[in-house]
Amino acid sequence: MAKNKNLIYIAISLVVFIVLAFLYSTPVFTGKQLFQHDIVQYRGGAKELLDYRADTGNETYWSDSMFGGMPTYQMGSQFKGDIIKQVDSKLNFLPRPVNYLFLLFGGFFLLGMVAVRNWKYALLGATFFGLSTYFYIAIAAGHNGKINTIEYFAPLLAGILLVYIRKSYIWGFIVTTLFMGLQIAANHPQMTYYLFLALGFLFISELIRAILQKAPMKHFVISSGIIAASCLIGVGMNSQRIMANSEYIKETVRGKQILTNKDHSEGNSGMDKKSILGWSYGRLETLNLFIPRLMGGGSQEPEGKEMMAKIQGLVQENISSQAEYNNFMQNFQEGFASPTYWGDQPGTSGPAYQGAIVCFLALLGFFFAWKKYRYWILGASILTVFLAWGSNFMALSDFFIDFVPFYNKFRAPSSILVVVELLFPLIAIIGLYRFFTDEKLTEEYKKKVLLYVGGGTLGFVLILLIFGKALLGFHTENEKTYLPPFLLDYLVDERLKLFRIDAIKAFIYVAIAAGALFLVLKQKLNQNIALIIIGLVSLFDLWSVNKRYLNDDNYVDKIFAENPFQTESSDLMAEKVQGNPNLEPILANVNVNKTLETIAEKDKTHYRIFNNILGTFSETNTSYFKSSIGGYHAVKLRRYDDVINEYFQVMDSVKVPNILGLLNAKYLVLGGPEQPQAIPNPKANGNAWFVSDLKFVESPNQEIKAIGVINSKKTAVIASSDKKYFDGKPVQADSTAFINLTKYQPNELEFKSQSKTPQLAVFSEIYYPHGWKFFIDEKEVPYIKADYLLRAVHVPAGNHHVRMVFEPEVIETGKWFSLISFGLFILLSGFGIFWMNKNKNEKVQPKAI
């Protein structure tokens, strides 16, 4: 009876999660959709991939849409036999973002049930975790892969705890394997990596417990073996994805460096430290977990518009001459970044707010929780906070970048705080559960801890409220240096007001929670009522803060969400766009989009466009209509990124046109958003060309320097290591020779060539050493790299058919590993459940007399 009652409560909790998710996302009821910046960029960058899939029913693992061409492994490619991804799709059945919120709630509910085996605390913890502000900021930005990964954090940890803590080996194996597979399938390795850094503390904790005989060593060995097997099988289910990405990563900015310069040395692996540590959390900024606008919140807080209007008024009041104004503007641009945010990061969409009550209860949890949870959660939390500081704690960051495997593959260390956002709610509900139910904790001990932690927390907030201006400053060093006193004083006063509002709220929320706990100790308040009070106050707190960053303004009409690259404007569109900062770029870019569309419709051949209006390397509008020189992607091919840094950071009027010629930029889109100009580029080399000159160079640095100054239509720059390719393969000039593109698909190109002498054909296609195959008259031939980042092949004299096709073997190999791993999971799970039920039945059978 009790079991059935518990199942009813669990079912009710799941319904509550669905209701909460829909209530937060009410615009979905009217058919509106989230407008997410990164998803808009994805729609543009993946257009060629999506069109190819729709037209052919097949998948292309290469697309020419961005950066001259790149694999699609990080652009939403689909893999045959990818069963675990189909499971992920089924779990995310609700409309976005309801699906994410429901799974964040539901996943932590499972973790809570494993940790404390009580639905009330699991429900409370689920709201603590599922309403973490960072998740809503990430959803608003369109970091769907990140959220998809994080939603499987809690259930994966639940599976591991089932094995280590609950000794439920079979169910623990099933849950761990399934959610390990789903986590990898979500395809955000950085988040998974950070989680496993924290899980390392759990492993060490269990090992120490076994050594100290707090738990049997046999159990530790068996549990560790089960978890290791679960993780291996979960990874194995994603073999295609992992193998393809592993192959790809080696050739990207996350792989080995090719050039030697001031930032890095040839052969070093990963990104340079400056790129890795770009978004480092400030030390004081960590308190944003407790007070959201301790440092102003986000760079674009709602109050920011009013502050900017006031700043303009102050400038008019205090500056009288043009010379004074010019000097002010120069200093203003140097010293000012945001009216609200004044932290250590270059900018931010919002704080990693965890909730005042959650942080307070987490502090209590470190005193009340069982030791088997307390120490590893504390250690993991401290490490992740320190790592989030990045450049503000270089001793630790240097160590991890230089010595900890794979850490240098990831940037933006501030995002590691997602681990704290998982662990604080967990330790909070464990501590709360023991506070209310564990008779081993004396009333005197509870009162003492509650007094010290509650009083200390409230006292800390009071100190900040009274002395905050002196302690926190509310300005950056740049602002103090460059801004005039009238403006600096205004900014400090306004930021202080924002801080005080949130600090007072934090004080009130903590006081309510501490008061409720104290009244329970005094037996003047029922435990359940106290839980409801804590839950509702925390819900109100997090909900109201989250609405600053993900609210109704983030939802737009379906037409804008699904086709953000509009080419026609109208009064109706202007009316819908007006006042919505998310949609204003759509209207502003209409003329540029129309220009791009016109180019694509008039010239249907294969070429690329250089768009210098919208930010070449931070937009995908161009890619939506035609192949682009630029694009928007965090994991670019290393060679292409090197060329961007070498030539496009400083626009040399002689060298840049040479590079655009190599990349077959047939059209340049210049001017401004209102009156864009499409200019044909006479220097475009075309899709392929024959060269008569070979320039051998000794180093990558010489190679990349040379391509900016040579006549690339006649000369190819070749690495000296490829000299052997030309043994027995002469290259001779023939002014009548030609090679023309006859067929284009993103993963297969065909050319017709004619020459009287042997030639080296250079293709305006990005070099990638894995998966591309060349055929001359259907006979496979080797190819090499030319001009630092292009493909080239030796073509004999005569008339020939040249074909290149992208057929990565890793996809087919990975498919079988994925299928075998999933089959092994089903087989072992089925056997385990059968064996468990058999033993259960044997235990209840009466013994023979």
Automatic annotation (TrEMBL):
Keywords: Membrane, Transmembrane, Transmembrane helix. The chain crosses the membrane at residues 7-25, 98-116, 121-141, 147-164, 169-186, 192-212, 219-237, 352-370, 375-396, 416-437, 449-472, 503-521, 528-545, 816-837. The keyword Ribonucleoprotein does not apply. PANTHER family: INTEGRAL MEMBRANE PROTEIN (PTHR38454:SF1), INTEGRAL MEMBRANE PROTEIN-RELATED (PTHR38454). This is YfhO family protein. It comes from Chryseobacterium ginsengisoli. The lineage of its organism: Bacteria, Pseudomonadati, Bacteroidota, Flavobacteriia, Flavobacteriales.
